[in-house]
């Protein structure tokens, strides 16, 4: 396995270590099947793994899991407060119409902002998400909505950012979502 363990010998029998090892192994096989490169480390409480795939654009995939110590907040669940699972998919996207835009989850103040900002609106069919744009929405925006439909529905999509000819897609999920990634790279 190219992705290496940085766990202590006591951690290797932990079910959390085995789950993270399986996650990393699955990631490594997916990238290898696409003739890509992979690197990273994992242990019982975290992983940080990266892969590169060229199909036909070069895509960089990163997955991160981090477990933090609790701050003792009475209002938040310690599971919610102390665990971060994230993924980021990036590529260069050069197009004549590639206007900058950002899709993100709606915040409490967005309702007021939408009254005054015509370049901020709810994402069609997904009212929990907002799109910010400057010069109109390119066809890429509609391809993103179609390709990432399941992530919008499950609310695992955190942010899509198209800026300076770089497309970045962030997830908050403990799943790989390789089937969504495959659909995305075929449609874009």
TrEMBL record:
Protein name as annotated: Uncharacterized protein
